[in-house]
Amino acid sequence: AILIMAPLFGIMSTMIVTGRMSFFSDALGHSAFTGIAIGAICGIAAPLWAAVIFAVAFSLLFSFVRSRSNQAADTLIGVFSSAAVALGIFVATLDGGSFTKYNKYLIGDILSITPAEIGLLALVLGAVIVLWVLFSNRLTLTVIHPQLASSRGIPTGLSQTLLSTAIALVVTLTISSVGLLILNSLLVLPGAAARNVAKNMRQYHGFSVLFALIAGITGLAISYAWGASAGAAISLALAILFGLTFCLRKRRA
Fold it and tell me: How far is CA 53 from CA 6, 114, 172, 215, in A?
């Protein structure tokens, strides 16, 4: 699971950092939790599917509103994120329901992942790799300068929708394994660390995936040895890598 999730985090992180979408990925995590709560209340045997549907719908609705609003992106993200959190808590505690049964989604447990979920993650990784091979340049130009991308004939709306959907799928499928509280750090830190030392886009993507793999394996080993949360250990390993690459960047400068 770690060997599949780490490249996913690494690839998605570069676009999230480049497009300044860290708050958006965090908002998607909140929407995924809301989907899980709704699925549980409705009696769905596998609430993860409800989370996938809700998170994808959330990302598409955000993209639609953003394209037709003159509000700043961070303002819209704040609106959607706060609404998702409020709805999730409201549904989870409806009729005096206990919130504690959702704690596993807040902290995460890598050992709870099933073979079916690993297979689904592998399919998503394959789809993301294909997406990056075919559209990485278009996606990069779209998130950096949408007006320039549009003038070059790039369908910016479609590009933003594909990116938002990919982030929603990754967030939703990994929330129960690494935990909502630190999930966003795993989507931001690999790209942030890679940006400190990369000299071109190829190195940027390569270092991001490499750092995610190193932190994933190291964090899992630390989690096993000390009996701590795997997600938190991976996040701390990534934070250390960011600090090291930041120091290297300063020395190089």
Answer: 23, 20, 9, 30
d(CA 116, CA 102): 21
Burial of 60 (C-beta count, 10 Å sphere; 0-12/13-18/19+): middle
Is residue 43 scored above 90 in pLDDT?
no
Distance of alpha carbon 134 from alpha carbon 198, whole angstroms: 22
DSSP 95: G
Cα distance between residue 119 and residue 1, in whole Å: 9
What does residue 199 show for φ and ψ, rounded to 5 degrees?
-105, -15
Six-digit token pair at 97? 């329901």
Buried b (16+ CB within 10 A) or exposed e, 20-33: ebbbbbbbbbbbbb
pLDDT, tens digit, 9 for 90 and up, residues 84-97: 888 888 887 877 76
